[in-house]
TrEMBL record:
Protein name: N-acetyltransferase
Positions of the N-acetyltransferase domain: 3-170
GO MF terms, alphabetically ordered: acyltransferase activity, transferring groups other than amino-acyl groups
Keywords: Transferase
Keyword Lipid biosynthesis listed: no
Signal peptide range: none
InterPro entries found in the cross-reference section: Acyl_CoA_acyltransferase, GNAT_dom
Source species, domain of life: Bacteria
Length: 181
């Protein structure tokens, strides 16, 4: 399967909200996520908030003019934030040694989504690799998500599990890639 991957800044990602929203719906309305309709409908607002983070950027994979998937995130701040339920849950659950991995110079991977019809074909792997590059990084996902296999095969380390608003999540980290390859 051949596809093209292109990078975008936060503004470029926001311009694609109408194209990314159906992909988000297909990925997160189904099990194990089972996100309610109001959370699915709120995706464009979350995308705008996420891509407003300083340094936010992402990548989209396309084939024949169709977006197959996307990933986005931002450079982690110097201290763990406490701006919302997600941030607070991480602060409370992260052991100190792991908390140290979740701040600068780490990259935060906020969202990775690939159309279900294109999963398992290398799209997510390529998007994730482009997003984090050689940087240390972290992300959270449902412990039963199919993407867990992708993260583990790519060398991400499962660190701890926690809950946000009764939703189980597992946090993964990835060390910086060695320099001088």
């Amino acid at each position: 399967m051949s596809f093209v991957v292109r990078g975008l800044d936060g503004a470029g990602l926001r311009q694609l909200a109408a194209h990314l929203h159906p992909i988000y719906r297909e990925c997160f309305a189904a099990p194990p996520w089972n996100e309610p309709a109001e959370k699915i409908a709120d995706f464009p607002v979350r995308l705008a908030r996420h891509t407003a983070h300083p340094g936010a950027y992402g990548w989209v994979a396309e084939q024949d003019g169709e977006i197959l998937g996307a990933v986005y995130g931002w450079p982690a701040p110097a201290a763990l934030p406490a701006a919302n339920a997600f941030d607070i849950a991480i602060r409370e659950a992260a052991p100190p040694d792991v908390a140290a991995l979740l701040v600068a110079p780490a990259m935060v991977v906020a969202e990775l989504m690939v159309l279900p019809t294109h999963q398992g074909r290398g799209v997510g792997r390529e998007l994730l690799a482009r997003q984090v590059g050689d940087h240390p990084a972290w992300l959270a996902t449902h412990p039963e998500a199919a993407a867990v296999r992708l993260y583990e095969r790519a060398g991400w380390k499962r660190r701890f599990s926690y809950q946000v608003e009764d939703r189980p999540l597992t946090l993964f980290t990835r060390a910086a890639a060695p320099t001088g390859r």
